[in-house]
Structures are given as structure tokens and as C-alpha cells.
From TrEMBL:
Taxonomic lineage of the native organism: Bacteria, Bacillati, Bacillota, Bacilli, Bacillales
CDD domains assigned to the protein according to its UniProt record, in alphabetical order: CAP_ED
Keywords linked to the UniProt accession: Activator
Protein name: Crp/Fnr family transcriptional regulator
Stored PROSITE patterns: CNMP_BINDING_3 (PS50042)
UniProt xrefs under InterPro entries: cNMP-bd_dom (IPR000595), cNMP-bd_dom_sf (IPR018490), RmlC-like_jellyroll (IPR014710)
Amino acid sequence: MNGLMELYEKKEVEQLFSEKKLINLLMNEHRLIPEEKKVNKKQIIMNEGEKNEYVFYIKQGIVAFKKQDTFLSFSKEAHFVGLETFLFNDVQPYTVEAMEKLEVLVFKKIEILDVLMAMQEGWLYLYLLNKEEKIKIQKSCSYLHLKGNHRSKKMLTELAKDFGISDGEAITLPKCFGKKCVTNYLGLSFNTGKALFEKFRREGFLLPPNQESFFRIHRDNL
């Protein structure tokens, strides 16, 4: 691995071995034929603790990663789900739930593994998977060190950066990020969350909700 890494600059690794490059490699160069599938909102596509034989590539939609009914993180189109189990001995570390209707490509994991193991650079894909998993864990840990309202504001702004849609002076979260979901993600009780969101609106951090989104973060906060 160290020998391979010396051949590439960090920037080159991220450009040459991205998820976009991987999906092109699988479908165009190796001509794997995945199953195209539509998934309903709230449907579970992977269960925590179970052996995982499939990898999903999200063409459209958003998924949530949960552990014991607690929202940990989220992912959206143009990302793989299930590749991280290469790092956990094939046991699924999280429950993965559709936040809204999804369109996915379903690959057999063994087929992807065969492709990656047949090329030297395949190890770099696994390296990047490990790196992304570490970043996800580090980000969750960093939130724990923040206090009170600052923690909730930081987590909301990060969601807005990753999933937000520009709407005038607001960056709005998709409708699937409802009060119950976000309150759970922030680690708050329902009543505490309700009071906090009202406070954030009085401060101008959150703008009034509309039919499309409950969470509309003022763009000046990003």
C-alpha cells in the first residue's frame, strides 16, 4: 500500500479513485450489469449486524444511516452504500433506511471485490473508503465536544452544506428532513427541539418554514 501511495499525490488519489470513477469502471470497463431498483420511503435496504452481500449505488434520493433507531449520518445520489462493510468483515455496521423514494443500482459485492482485487489501484479505493469512514466517525465525535445551541447550529449548517437547496436568502433542507428526524439526529427530546427551533427562528438563524421545507437556514450562517 505504501508503495502504491508514493506513486500518487493526495489530489491525484481523490481525482483518480473517486466514487464517480468507480461506477464508470464497474459499468463501462468491466461491464457489470446491476439490478435497477426503486425503493419506497422508510424502506430498510440494509440491517445493522447482518451479513451484507450487496452494494447499492444511489442514482436518486437520500438515505439515513441509523444505529438502534438513532440517526447518525446521511448520504445522497452519486454515492455507494455497502462498500464500507469491506472494513467490518462483511457485517453491516448500520441500518440504512430510505429517507425518500430512491432509485438505486444493486451490485453483488463479490463482483465489485473481484474487480478491485484484480487491479493494483483497487487497494486505493479501499484506502479511500477507510478514510471516508474515519472522517464520518471523527465528525460525529467532534459534535460531542460542542456545547448547547452551538452544537445544534453546527450540525444543521453541515446538513445544509451537504444536502441544502438554494432558495433566495435561505438554504433549505429537503422535505424528508422533518422535525422528528432532525430532532433525533441532534440528540434532543421533541419538546426541547421544538423550543430550540423557535429560538433559532427568533434569532434569524432559521427562517420561517414553508410547504417544501421545515428547516430553512439563513445563508449568512453558512
